[in-house]
Amino acid sequence: MQRVESEIKRIIKEIDYEEVSRLFEMLQGGKRLRAKLILKIAPTSTTAPLLGAIVELIHAASLLHDDVIDEATLRRGVASVNATDGSKTAVMLGDILYSKAFSELVAFDKEIAKVVSSSVTALSKGEMMDVKMAVNFNSDEDKYLEMLYLKTATLIEACAHAAAVLAKKDPHSHALYGKNLGLSFQIIDDILDITSDEATLGKPAMNDFVEGKCTLPYIYLYQLLGQQDRQILSSLHAKILTKEESLWIREMMKQHKTVEKSFSLAQELSNEAMSAIKDDTELIEILQTMIKRSY
Ligand code: FPP
Ligand code: MG
Q1: CA of 82 to the centre of ligand 2 (A)
Q2: Sign of the four-CA dihedral 292, 285, 151, 29
Q3: Closest CA to ligand 1's atom 7
Q4: Which of 152, 170, 235, 282 is deepest in the core (most CB within 10 A)?
Q5: pLDDT computed for residue 293 by the predictor
Q6: Which of 34, 57, 66 most suits a substitution to test ligand 1, by most atoms within 8 Å of the C-beta?
Q7: Which one of 3.30.1540.20, 1.10.600.10, 3.50.90.10, 2.60.40.10 gives the CATH number of domain 1-30+48-107?
Q8: Using one digit for the tens of pLDDT, what is the confidence trace for 249-281?
Q9: Which residues contact 180 (CB under 8 A, 6 or more apart)?
């Protein structure tokens, strides 16, 4: 991973603008899940660290823009760039990171450049769907999963696919692994938004619903509630919740086991990821740590 970090450093230095270096240093690195995945699939490839750096910059750019869109003030436990330096700066920093990542990407072969760049179109489409779907209460599970696939899983799918190309491994099975890993990862993330607290999350708990996002535990809850409770749940959508209101939601979720139900789907997807790569113990390990993740 050190080689990924030094590629990132080199790229940021090459941008040659002190303001960018300062702001980039303020961003917390994060888990670097995408770069780690690339290195696990292509450990001996000399260009894998650069590819890892590229996708981490794309990911960082997408989060900068996402925090502007979501009007989030916290990211990874610290104030977001839009909160400290304003939305204009956050958008422009995102643009710089994202375009610089693309100029580095052209050094790779066509299949890799294509799969990574197309995934950015997909994640942008997913983000747009996410915003649109948050306007009203969404109870459509398929629509939700399609959005999740675009917003989160496509970049992870592209990482696994591209790394397999670098390592001369099967791109199809690795892409399938990445897709299901990404979906499962995001569902776990959605669950943690409900089951964790602010101190562990680095952002307020139950924030998704406040932002208007009806994640799986909410969708399942809606499906299982009676008419009257459905109305209560819908009335709480996209607003700041009182202690009693969030307790009511948590209690209803407990009664109807909607977190458990969501977790089962995450587990199912994780099993599908596992069967795509069969006996690759390192990739199986990534899945197991991810599913056990409780921050
Ligand atoms: C986090 O979602 C957001 C994403 C995974 C993708 C965001 C994509 C864009 C803003 C498109 C623009 C892309 C580039 C490369 C400039 P979330 O809000 O559910 O997660 P959070 O709780 O971590 O904020
Ligand atoms: Mg967000």
Answers
A1: 12
A2: positive
A3: 62
A4: 152
A5: 75
A6: 66
A7: 1.10.600.10
A8: 999 999 999 999 999 999 999 999 999 998 899
A9: 153, 269, 270, 272, 273, 276
HSE value, Cβ hemisphere, 13 Å, CA-based, for 47? 14
Cα 135 to ligand 2 centroid, rounded to whole Å: 15
Do residues 71 and 136 lie in contact, with contact meaning Cβ atoms separated by under 8 Å? no
pTM, full prediction: 0.93
Q: Which atom of ligand 1 is nearest to the CA of 189?
A: 22
The highest-level CATH class for domain 113-295 is: mainly alpha
In this structure, the residue with its CA closest to atom 16 of ligand 1 is 62
Taking CA atoms only, the protein residue closest to ligand 1 atom 23 is 63
Report angle CA 72, 200, 138 to the nearest 5 degrees. 50
The C-alpha angle with vertex 290 and arms to 196 and 45, in degrees rounded to 5, equals 140
Specify the residue with its C-alpha closest to ligand 1, atom 18.
66
> How many A from CA of 6 to the centre of ligand 2?
27
Tens digit of each residue's pLDDT (9 = 90 or more) over 184-194: 999 999 999 99
pLDDT level of residue 295 (50, 70, 90 thresholds): very low
Pocket of ligand 1 (CB under 6 A): 58, 61-62, 65-66, 69-70, 72, 94, 98, 120, 123-124, 127, 151-152
Phi, psi for 253 (deg, rounded to 5): -65, -35
Write the pLDDT tens digit of every residue in 14-62: 999 999 999 999 997 788 999 999 999 999 999 999 999 999 999 999 9
